[in-house]
Amino acid sequence: MPTNVIMPALELAQETGKVLRWLKSPGEAVTKGEPIVEIETDKVTVEVEAPASGVLRDVTARAGDVVPVGKTIAVIAAPGEAAAAAPETPVATVRHAGAAAAPAPVAASAGVKASPLARKLAEQHGVDLAQMQTPSGRIEKADVLAYVESRKGAAAGDGAAARLAPASPKARRLASERGVDLSVVRGSGPGGAVLALDVPAAAQRAAAAGVSNVWRIMAERMTASWTTAPHFYLVREVNVSRLATWRERAGKQTGARITYTDLLVRLVAAAIAQHPRVNVSWKDGAIIQHADVNVGLAVALEDGLVVPVLHRADTLTLAEIAARREDLVTRAQAGKLRPSDIQGGTFTISNLGMFGVDAFDAIVNPPQAAILAVGRIADRVVALNGQPAVQPTMVLTLSCDHRALDGARGAQFLGALADLIEEPLAILV
Length: 429
Known about the structure:
It is a single chain. The chain is α+β, with helices and mostly antiparallel strands. The protein is built from nine helices and 20 strands. It is 29% helix and 23% strand. Strands 10, 13, 16, 17, 18, 19 and 20 form a seven-stranded mixed sheet that branches. It starts with a strand and ends in a 7-residue tail after the last helix.
């Protein structure tokens, strides 16, 4: 029985995913668990693994397509098995990068507006005019020639070209020279084919924009959070002298490279376990309580921000947290996160202390209810036993969504976290 490859839901609020590139070509053998396609969501790029072993067939989404979650994008059939054709995706539900959903083609060639020469060329080359569209609505001789050239270009090579956007050979050459990704260029030729004249304009737009799709969508999500979630902030300065001592001791005891972020993950998870009302989300007008404590870490990349998740952080030892954090951050920076790495986060930590920032207000990561902003550790004058003293301190800022959390609950959580930081005791080992 053929197995469907579907667009996965990687996040609670995700509705669509974008196909970046297929790592396997139609007709190639694949093994269960082997990466076969790269998918981009609003937060991260991930490699989707094959759900079964067999032969990849019926690929319905090409590079650049934006597909609804749950939609079939390919089929994996056993060798020699006849794969049932995947259900045809309606044009209204799949968008190509940079373009609105294309309208359905004209039903028959006879009803298509085309010049006599265009019809003659179409007959000679076996082109169905009903499958072609032009900005003017009328198909000319040059449109048919460009369409034929784009089909030849897609059919050339070992099959990799077939996964590229339709384009004329000259357009492909210009794109290669100027470093333009044809999969994200909206073509003006028939059937959306990219023509040579489209490439310079695309190169100029890319240079002017200078913004990746990940960054753009991140901006949209943060704008939505900022404008829809009523934020409030709680600030607490904590003494970290004992935390620093425990970090050194824990590193010697575990043999692991322990960072302050690792300590904070462990302590945040412990504080959430004491105050589970913080471990919630606001969705569809209701508060959703989460059973697992899944702590996300904001990781800055060149083209955006990702939040890999340490699942069930309250059950992990400090050494396990350190190992998982290092693995997640390394793979995030290499663009090798898996879907499970970014799913299910219930609370986020954003640490800018390493950049010399004293304190900042973070934007809540939807649909979570709170995010902890962490500033740098610095020597400051504080009152100690009624006398001024210089001690290492750190400023914590808790940003909360007032729809899911009130000030009292947020303050209780932040107070518990501050107590744990100032008196970590044996919880860190």
